[in-house]
Design goal:
Length: 322
């Protein structure tokens, strides 16, 4: 998280009065994350997360996200439902933004997951995909493949201020991904689409919570696994690939088995797509983050470098990676 929108103690007290959650004791902005504004809120009755939805989350999509969370919680997955106020309303407005009060889940986000922990996360992702088999909600992926070219063009030549040649290199990589993307050749379902280690709260080697469903959408199941693989199995710089962590994540997902031959063939291009998606969203943020926001921008090149593992041949032909 981050804090883009500031909430006064008075406004928060009035907001909490709509709920049966006790009275405000303290509220602290959470510096982690980049997408939404988040506060850790303690009341006389417990601990909560207050989220104010920013830039990439459209208010009209919130009913989909909350329905998905309710569906997953009802199936026993450790996801945090939004709290309803005394009138049964979960989606509110606060400080001019859409806002929800969310159940706090215990656990810590890992920065250096072990293979055992990655295996547990892979298992949890598979459980999520099984649990949505009867979920009827549908949402096009607003950060999916169709959005990458327009985002590249919106970033424009400013990308070259991050690394000389980055605009054209991203464009070349995108040409390849657009030509080879499997589209309907493999299964789709509701996916998390952002299952980074910071969105999995771990209790030792056990998954205690899956959070941050605000990119959830209907897309390729295996693309979700490719995103998680790219997020979990590299160090923070994107230089070092922890292959054992990635292998354990996939084995956990497949529950000890392996992907089908068709899935195995599709995986690298989906992972290259994941690299492009997060390079682009980070690059946009790098170039456009407001100066007064409490947020640590994430390095776009850390994601870009992962391409060297997923498509070494392509990487060797790109100025920014060769
Ligand atoms: N339900 C929850 N229970 C406990 N902690 C939470 C919960 N939701 C969020 N957090 C804490 O807040 C931090 C930021 O949350 P989150 O990842 O949802 O923010 P974001 O801005 O959407 O981030 P991202 O950059 O991953 O998209 C998490 O890393 C976690 O520490
Ligand atoms: N998890 C993403 C932020 C969501 O777009 C990142 O680390 O870039």
């Amino acid at each position: 998280m981050a804090v883009y929108t500031h909430v006064s103690a008075e406004a928060l007290t009035a907001f909490l009065a709509r709920y049966d959650v006790g009275e405000l004791v303290s509220a602290k902005g959470i510096a982690e994350g980049v997408e939404n504004s988040n506060y850790l809120v303690d009341t006389t009755k417990g601990r909560f997360i207050l989220t104010l939805y920013e830039k990439r989350v459209a208010a009209g999509d919130l009913p989909y996200f909350l329905a998905l969370l309710d569906h997953l919680a009802a199936k026993g997955l450790p996801v945090p439902p939004a709290i309803k106020d005394r009138h049964g309303v979960a989606i509110q407005e606060l400080a001019g933004r859409p806002a929800c009060l969310i159940a706090f889940l215990p656990g810590v986000s890992l920065s250096e997951p072990t293979p055992v922990q990655a295996g547990a996360a892979g298992k949890a992702l598979a459980a999520l995909h099984r649990a949505v088999a009867d979920f009827e909600g549908d949402r096009a992926n607003s950060m999916g493949i169709a959005s990458w070219r327009p985002l590249l063009e919106r970033c424009g030549r400013s990308l070259d201020s991050i690394a000389p040649g980055l605009h054209d290199d991203l464009s070349s990589a995108l040409d390849l991904v657009e030509a080879r993307w499997p589209h309907d050749a493999i299964g789709s379902c509701a996916i998390h689409a952002d299952l980074f280690p910071d969105n999995v709260l771990m209790l030792g080697d056990t998954v205690g919570g899956l959070i941050d469903f605000y990119f959830a959408s209907t897309d390729l199941r295996l693309y979700d696994l490719a995103i998680a693989h790219a997020a979990w199995s590299f160090d923070a710089t994107g230089h070092a690939h922890e292959a054992a962590v990635g292998d354990a994540l996939i084995a956990g997902y497949a529950d000890g088995g392996s992907l089908t031959a068709e899935e195995g063939r599709a995986f690298p291009i989906l992972a290259v797509g994941a690299c492009i998606r997060f390079t682009l969203s980070r690059a946009w943020d790098w170039l456009n983050t407001p100066h007064d926001a409490l947020v640590t921008r994430k390095d776009p090149l850390a994601f870009w470098r992962r391409l060297r593992v997923y498509d070494p041949d392509l990487a060797s032909r790109l100025k920014t990676l060769a």
